[in-house]
Amino acid sequence: MESEQLFRRGYYRNSYNSITSASSDEELLDGAGVIMDFQTSEDDYLLDGDASVGKTHYTMTNGGSINSSTHLLDLLDEPIPGVGTYDDFHTIDWVREKCKDRERHRRINSKKKESAWEMAKSLYDAWSGWLVVTLTGLASGALAGLIDIAADWMTDLKEGICLDALWFNHEQCCWGSNKTTFEERDKCPQWKTWAELIIGQAEGPGSYIMNYIMYIFWALSFAFLAVSLVKVFAPYACGSGIPEIKTILSGFIIRGYLGKWTLMIKTITLVLAVASGLSLGKEGPLVHVACCCGNIFSYLFPKYSTNEAKKREVLSAASAAGVSVAFGAPIGGVLFSLEEVSYYFPLKTLWRSFFAALVAAFVLRSINPFGNSRLVLFYVEYHTPWYLFELFPFILLGVFGGLWGAFFIRANIAWCRRRKSTKFGKYPVLEVIIVAAVTAVIAFPNPYTRLNTSELIKQLFTDCGPLESSSLCDYRDDMNASKIVDIPDRPAGTGVYSAIWQLCLALIFKIIMTVFTFGIKVSSIRFVIPSMAIGAIAGRIVGIAVEQLAYYHHDWFIFKEWCEVGADCITPGLYAMVGAAACLGGVTRMTVSLVVIVFELTGGLEYIVPLMAAVMTSKWVGDAFGREGIYEAHIRLNGYPFLDAKEEFTHTTLADNMTVEDIENLINETSYNGFPVIMSKESQRLVGFALRRDLTIAIESARKKQEAYPSLPAESPRPLKLRSILDMSPFTVTESHTNGDSGGYFPQAGSEQCLVTHNGIVLGIITKKNILEHLEQLKQHVEPLAPPWHYNKKNILRHMAQTANQDPASIMFN
Fold it and tell me: Which residues touch 41 (CB under 8 Å, ≥6 apart)?
């Protein structure tokens, strides 16, 4: 229907059809059926594109001669609405976006001296970057404080309610009570369990069963509400969002993923998911929340709303603010954005990321959601130094973290693939209900699994002091110990041994449930906080074991120099912290940013060396089983077009020459997103590159403008000047380039496609998706499905896979 309308208005049918489905060699070379003739005697005339200079004519016509007035050419050279934008699930052209920003900046500078208004607009443009990151930091800190307060209240709601003030959680409810004791500081008359409210019993089997039932009821209610809201209102709000944010920051377009609805539903369901007791946490999704804020605020400033590359600078700063409020680590947030998620990170983005993280941390500190004047719940301080012999157990924890990371990645990827291939994955609500029910039933009897994951980590990190009444601190007092400021190492009591058994069961439970919880359709992250909890449990167990070994065998040569009788030698909480960092490093393969984040949690410089040793060991061990972290693994699982700029490409293969006949055979079966523009069919000299979408929009715009000029004869062919949409400097490589060079240049150049040329003559096109397919096939050693002599991107890559195990220098095609 559309092509018929174009035909009636003077456009030939085959001109428009070829835009949507190129079908011949002539159409490919001539730019979607619109003949682009670039005959010229001088290159300057070619670049100028003036049809009136000598023999030079820079035209695109539908087969007729150009006989319409010149003013129409000038009219069509005006900016065309929609040109330069991108469709959903497409990749931006970084080079073009940077050129657009330079042109915008040049235009503003040229006008700022014309009037006071233009000068004000110039100042506004210059400060818009700082304004948008300030608003992002303010919103991120406020939302993080709101999420923390609401999640703590709803988590305690599963066990009881505060009658004096319904909005108080358990701890806040008992703050003002005068009837609490030191041993039972969490019990006060104002706080009522559900058993007390329903059956009037505070103790006994009936009370335990009623509290058990109500715990399961609230867990299922929260989980059902969370998954229902995500499914109905914002499907993009599920998961942590970090793999998708990494892909978006690399230049991929996912419309709605950082929108207003996603932000609102993510914030609400994140609280519900954490309160449901599932093996997940709220820290990772705060990065998604902060990026939603940055994306929304960027639309208030034309500098960022009209330029996708500039917008990603704001998103990089927003991700730093998200980590800042998630872990209370502003510097760690900046390093996380630089090391883990950002694709393009100029120096000014570093400054703005630092400022956004600072503002977000300041707002969260002002809200003080945990009531401890800290940014995070599990902030701890240790007063005992570590000793040289402790490096051995720290390294062992690093080995455990690497093994856990490798197992977790493989197990979860396998489970997610199975979920996608079975009917079970088609019922996300049922899956969430089943997982929540199993989690609640198993978690309630064990006090360590019943706790909120952040509360559990806080207990495991905390060192035993005179004010601690936890069973982990149930040591037998040694009356013969010398009186010193720090509590000395003591023999473990029955409470400590009982806690160790409960922690072992909690460790097994966390490992299993984290594997199966990963991938369900709720708003939360399934591996950061659970991985930290698993590492903290293992570390605390190891710390207690080393502590007791040093107490009973202080005369051993490894303890003799440092662990005297009555001295405070071993800090089990430090082992929990090192274990948490090691397991998180094994899962994410983060190094520098992770050490800084954990360092900011503890506030002590002297524990950096144990953290570095454990984190590096976990990375080495994990890399021995596969270099992919959990974020990259899920990017690959979901099929996102992401090329890691830090990845090394070791495969070297050569592409073959191709003929026009090969192109004709392939064009009939292939639909391209863009077309190379050449001098002529004879020379095939490359002039530029035009995107399919821009060509389509340009033709539609020309048709609308033609309707506005009815005086022009309808039977005359309409000239179509497309210089404004032509990329005059596309990313090109020669045919002798190896795949390793191309794979490394793609993320650095920031281009979606690469034109293969020989002495300026176009031979073919390779896209980023082709490189990804090639790398995937090389990993899986897939045999080629088509003859290698086709110079089609997929066939070339399949042929590369076929020859991956051969000597590239010995393989020359044709």
Answer: 54, 55, 56
- For the chain, report the end-to-end CA distance as a whole number of angstroms: 45
Say how many C-beta atoms besides its own lie within 10 A of residue 562's C-beta: 17
Contact between 359 and 142 under an 8 Å Cβ cutoff? The reply is no
Phi, psi for 635 (deg, rounded to 5)? -65, -45
Alpha helices in 589-659 (DSSP H): 592-602, 608-625, 630-638
pTM: 0.72
Q: Could you tell me which residues come within 8 angstroms of residue 394 by beta carbon, excluding any fewer than 6 positions away? A: 575, 578, 610, 613, 614
Per-residue pLDDT at 796: 42
Report the alpha-carbon distance of residue 674 to residue 678 in Å, rounded: 13
d(CA 611, CA 86): 44
Q: How many other β-carbons are positioned within 10 Å of the β-carbon of residue 636?
A: 17
The tokens describing 793, both together, are 């991107």
Number of Cβ atoms within 10 Å of the Cβ of 159: 18
Q: Write the CB contacts of 682 (distance below 8 Å, at least 6 apart in sequence).
A: none
Calculate the dihedral angle through the C-alpha atoms of 575, 580, 583, 587, rounding to the nearest 10 degrees: -160
Dihedrals φ, ψ of 153, to 5°? -65, -45
Comparing CA positions, the residue from 548, 413, 537 lying closest to residue 492 is: 548
Q: Report, as an integer, the average pLDDT of 17-41.
A: 36
Placement of tokens 């994990």 in the chain: 622
User: In this predicted model, what pLDDT tens digit does every residue of 775-796 receive, in sequence order?
Assistant: 777 666 544 433 333 334 444 4
Instruction: State the maximum Cα–Cα separation within the chain, in Å, rounded to a whole number.
Output: 110
* Encoded tokens for 294: 């940055």
- ∠ CA 139-145-149, rounded to 5°: 145
> What does the alpha-carbon distance between residue 732 and residue 745 come to, in Å, rounded to a whole number?
10
Gap between the Cα atoms of 398 and 589, Å rounded: 12
Nearest to 419 by CA among 320, 519, 524: 519
**Cα–Cα–Cα angle for 310, 316, 321, nearest 5°?**
130
Q: Which of 355-364, 708-717, 803-812 bottoms out in mean pLDDT, i.e. has the lowest?
A: 803-812
Closest CA to 588 of 119, 246, 107: 246
Q: What is the dihedral of CA 527, 533, 537, 540, to 10 degrees?
A: 130
Q: How many CB atoms lie within 10 A of CB 814?
A: 8
Cα angle: 403, vertex 408, 410; to 5 degrees? 100
